[in-house]
Amino acid sequence: MCMCQSSKYPFIVGRCLFNKQKFYCSKVAGKNKLGLKLGLGIGCPTLIILILSIYVFRRRCKQKYASSNFLRQKTSSDHSSKSDLESSSTACFGLPIFSYAELAEATNNFDDEKELGDGGFGTVYYGKLRDGREVAIKRLYQHNYRRLQQFINEVEILTRLRHKNLVSLYGCTSRRSRELLLVYEFIANGTVADHLHGNLAQSGSLTWPIRMSVAIETASALAYLHASDIIHRDVKTNNILLDDNFCVKVADFGLSRLFPNDVTHISTAPQGTPGYVDPEYHQCYQLTEKSDVYSFGVVLVELISSMPAIDITRHRHEINLANLAINKIQKCAFDELIDPNLGYKSDEEVTRRTTLVAELAFRCLQQEKEKRPSMEEVSEELQRIQSEDYKLENVQEDEHTDSEVPISSLPPPSPPTGDQIALLKNIRLPASPVSVTDKWISQRTTPSASV
C-alpha cells in the first residue's frame, strides 16, 4: 500500500507497482474517500476542543488577575483616605463628603475627652474642622449591614428636612469609608436635661418663659416631622439641644424610621429610653406618631416640675414621672407637681400657664393612643396658652362680666373637672417599667401586626 500522486487525484491510496523501470500506483477504489472522511471526522473536533480549552484558560487567568488587582485596591482604600473617593467637592444626597482623615484630625483621633455623649447607634464627639467650624461628629458603632442601612436612612431623612428647630447636618463620610460618620452643627449650650436636672441646673437659666418657648419650639419641630411622615422615636430632654439664645434644636435621628403612607403603624422591636416609651408600644409593639406624643407629654411634665423622667429614689409607684404626674393631676395636687421656683402660687400668670400645660401633658399621657392629641394639636394648644386667647376666654366664660373688669383680678383657672377627670379616675394604670425590656401589664388583648 502506498500514497502517490496522479493527474486525476492529488493523493490517492493504492498499490505501488513497477513497470518498465517506473513506479506507478494502482488505485484501490473507495479507500481514498474513506480515509479523508476519517481524518476530517477526528481532526476537526479535536482542533475545536483545543481552541476552546486555550480560550477558557486565558479567560480564567485574566479574571484571576483582575480580582487580585481589585482586592489590592480595596485594601488600599480601606487604609488610606486619599483613595477613599472622598473629597469636599464630592456630594452624597447633595451633602459635602468629608474624608475620614479630616474628621479624625478634627477630633484628635476621636479622643475620649472630645466625647459629648452616646446613643443607640453611635457616639458623638466634638470636633473643629480645618475651616474653623465647630461640629458634632456622630460615629456609628459598627460598619455592618444594619449600621450602613441606618447611616443611609439618616442621611436621606435629614437632607429632606428644613426647620429652624431641627439640628442641621453639614455632611458625612463616603459609604466606602473605613467608618460611617455624620457631621452636625455643634450646639454649645447643652441639653434641656442638663439645665433641668444636670450639671447646669444650678444656674437657674431656665426660667418659665424660656421653658414655655422650649415646649412650643419642640412641639413645632415634632409636628413638622410628623407632617413629613417621620417618627422621631426617641423624644426626650437629652435630645433637645439649646443654642446660646436658648432656641431649641431637636437632635438625634438615630432611631428615626420612615413609614409608608398606606399603613398606620410600623411593627418593630421596642426601642427608646426608659421613662419616655409609650406603654402601648410595649403591649403591642406598634409604633405610631402618637408614641412621640406620649414622650413629649413626659417632656412637658419635666419642664413644669424640674424632675427627671426616671428617679429610683422616689416611691416605687412614682419612679416613672409619667405615673407621678397622672396621680397628682387626678388628685388636683398641682402644688405637689409644679416646681415652686418657677413662680407657681406666687405669680398668677405662671400659675395659670403651668396648670394649663399640666392639663395638656395629662392628655398626652393617656394610656390609649386614640385619646391622645396629635402633635399638631399639641403645638397649637401650647401657642394658645402662650397667647392671650385663654385669658379672654376665661373672662367671657368664667366671669361673664363687663370688659372693664381688670384681668389681673381674675383667679387662676380651676383644675380639670367634669368628664375629663372622671374618665381618668376610672383608668387603672399598669405598673410602670423602668427598663425598656420590661413588659407593661396589658389591660386588653391586642394582636401584634408584625409582618
Automatic annotation (TrEMBL):
Listed GO MF terms: ATP binding; protein serine/threonine kinase activity
Keyword Phosphoprotein set for record: yes
EC number: 2.7.11.1
Listed name of the protein: non-specific serine/threonine protein kinase
UniProt organism field: Durio zibethinus
Record-listed ATP binding positions: K138
Catalytic reaction annotation: L-seryl-[protein] + ATP = O-phospho-L-seryl-[protein] + ADP + H(+); L-threonyl-[protein] + ATP = O-phospho-L-threonyl-[protein] + ADP + H(+)
GO CC, one annotated term: plasma membrane
UniProt subcellular location: Cell membrane
InterPro entries: Kinase-like_dom_sf, Prot_kinase_dom, Protein_kinase_ATP_BS, Ser-Thr/Tyr_kinase_cat_dom, Ser/Thr_kinase_AS
Transmembrane segments: 38-57
Family: Belongs to the protein kinase superfamily.
Pfam families: PK_Tyr_Ser-Thr
UniProt keyword terms in alphabetical order: ATP-binding, Cell membrane, Glycoprotein, Kinase, Membrane, Nucleotide-binding, Phosphoprotein, Receptor, Serine/threonine-protein kinase, Signal, Transferase, Transmembrane, Transmembrane helix
Membrane topology recorded in Swiss-Prot or TrEMBL: Single-pass type I membrane protein
Domain Protein kinase span(s) in chain numbering: 110-385
Disordered as annotated region, ranges: 397-420
Keyword Transferase in record: yes
